Amino acid sequence: MQKLDRFLRQPFQKTFWGIICLIVLFGIGLVSVNAVQPLGEPDLWQVYQQSLKKAKYVDLTHVIAPSIPVWSGFGSSFFTPAINPKTGSPYTYQKDGFEATHYDLSTDQLGTQLDPPAHWNPDYPAIDELPATFAVRPLVVIPIQDKVAKDPNYHLSVKDIQNWERKHGRIPQGSVVFVRSDWSSLWPNPELATRTKFPGVSLDALKFLHLQRQILFHGHEPLDTDSTPTLEGEAWLLKNGYTQAEGVANLDQVPETGALISIGYPKFKGGLGGYARYIAICPPNWKYGVSVGQISESPLQKADKPLHWDAKLGVRVR
């Protein structure tokens, strides 16, 4: 025992065997994670209970439907009831106990999106290769809607960003920056996709945000980054390994600072575009949004009318 004690007292062995003992104690349940948690750092369940549960949640995402605006070069999308390949008949609640939908989507560049750089450069990640760290970030909203009201082709400038920073402070590194133009207030008018003049983000502003402020990505309401003939801003972003959000909605319901953003998208193998779901997580005292527990969630509340297939619209409606 004396030899063993002397052995354990040596610095390296003592540290090593101390770690081994902790691993064993964790394994048999005698020490909990909370017991060794650093002081002053609440676990994420506490963060949820104290902050996220009380927050206001605002959806920044358009609904995908066959009639929404899309570039004419992609063509239209179609929805139909899913069909049993053996019978050739649609599945029905009455006969099969369920229904499903077949989606004929003309492109992965549809609706509210997250563009991976592989959209323009095959050497960079596709949508399924983006890191999981994209999940939650600080959200910055820079308003240009007043200038867009005077000039529908107005593009965010470096000066606009600097004016925002004089008011709110430096844009956080790794944040997501959305540009509010209120262009989406006319959504889902299909004519939006035919406009050659629309609010955008200048190349200088994009370079400033990424090279000077090191943001994760920016987002805009229109379906393109800028209205230049060569899409110079979008080209620079995607050809150099950056991502971007397009078709963002409801930025008039989000504070310019102090919110987070939740980012979700399906992982299509080798996908060059991403159908995205963006949720702004706003402070509890914010005037827009819904809080956890404010509406029935589990189970969800029944609707007043059941869903049914509308052959004219090509979607299910109530």
TrEMBL record:
One of its GO terms (biological process) is L-tryptophan catabolic process to kynurenine. The chain crosses the membrane at residues 16-36. Keywords: Membrane, Transmembrane, Transmembrane helix. InterPro entries: KFase/CYL, KFase_sf. Signal peptide: none annotated. GO terms for molecular function: arylformamidase activity. This is Cyclase. It comes from Nostoc sphaeroides CCNUC1.
